[in-house]
Design goal:
The protein has about 290 residues and is of the alpha+beta class. The chain is built from 8 helices and 14 strands. Strands 1, 2, 3, 4, 5, 6, 7, 8, 9, 10, 11, 12, 13 and 14 form a 14-stranded mixed beta sheet that branches. Strand 10 and strand 11 form a beta hairpin.
Length: about 290
């Protein structure tokens, strides 16, 4: 997918080079320092997973990484992009615009979805992105004890459940994310709701940032989504937990009441046409703001 044959200097700043990101330690360490400079909670392992699942570009000045953009294709028609960071010391020099231009060159005709902060919104509009929804970030350190729900339909997923989870995610998301689901299964855990021998909902939880992140959460009803989320709240009692929910999920007040207040929100924007979803299940919580 990445079609840059060589590093490119930025014409107005010839000392700044844009190049593909690699999984080598210098790139991961430099990217980690970049995210720390803007107070993002990424760990080095979070950067590694993000790059393994997609592609990235870095801007480098005098040997230091000063900007980044990554993207994740899902099939031949759709991708998400994110982790768009410019070092505070280098803002106002057109780095964000240059990275976006080169990412769009590399992705060609793919429809693209991203989640925008207030600061980036105008730039993305100039590149043809339009608002479609919002995402709300809820997080906190949970109490030391979170009692399990009575009569919960949730069970821990087994390896044999993975194909059904992949299919259900594709129906609810609109595109196949097999590599992402398989990676989350390796680095984290999953839970499912099974009725009459059919898996009708699932949630995944993995190490991320300050603690654990829950997502994606796919379910047939908001009640099932709450059961799946509560499963991981009980499992990770006493730890820091984050979840990013869609603005129309109907889960915000419930999360806040149960100890996970909203700490911020972003605007979901798309350039092109998002693939259609199928089936009764829907996505209540994102895999992440970047992965979608």
């Amino acid at each position: 997918m990445l079609d840059m044959k060589e590093d490119r200097a930025i014409s107005t700043h010839p000392s700044i080079i844009v190049r593909p990101m690699t999984g080598a330690d210098p790139d991961l360490d430099g990217a980690l320092a970049l995210s720390q400079a803007v107070s993002w909670p990424y760990r080095k392992d979070d950067w590694r997973v993000a790059l393994e699942l997609g592609h990235g570009l870095l801007a480098e000045a005098d040997g230091a990484i000063v900007a980044s953009i990554l993207w994740w294709p899902y099939g031949d028609a759709f991708a998400t992009c994110g982790i768009i960071i410019v070092s505070p010391a280098m803002q106002g020099r057109g780095l964000g615009r240059t990275l976006m231009e080169q990412m769009l060159d590399a992705t060609g005709d793919l429809a693209l979805l991203l989640n925008s902060t207030v600061e980036g919104h105008r730039l993305y509009e100039r590149f043809g992105f339009s608002d479609v929804s919002t995402v709300h970030q809820h997080q906190a350190r949970l109490p030391d004890s979170v009692p399990p729900l009575p009569d919960s339909a949730v069970r821990t997923a087994q390896a044999s459940d993975l194909p059904a989870i992949v299919r259900l995610d594709e129906q609810a998301f609109g595109a196949a994310r097999t590599r992402l689901i398989e990676a989350f299964s390796r680095i984290g855990t999953a839970a499912v709701i099974e009725r009459d021998g059919v898996i009708t909902g699932f949630a995944m939880c993995r190490r991320f940032g300050f603690g654990q992140a829950v997502g994606p959460v796919v379910a047939a009803t908001a009640g099932d989504a709450r059961q799946l989320i509560h499963h991981f709240m009980a499992e990770h009692a006493g730890t820091f937990l984050r979840i990013d929910i869609s603005g129309d999920s109907g889960l915000g007040d419930w999360l806040t009441t149960n100890g996970l207040p909203e700490v911020g929100h972003v605007t979901t924007m798309i350039r092109g046409q998002r693939p259609a979803v199928a089936g009764e299940a829907r996505t209540y919580s994102l895999a992440s703001q970047s992965f979608g």
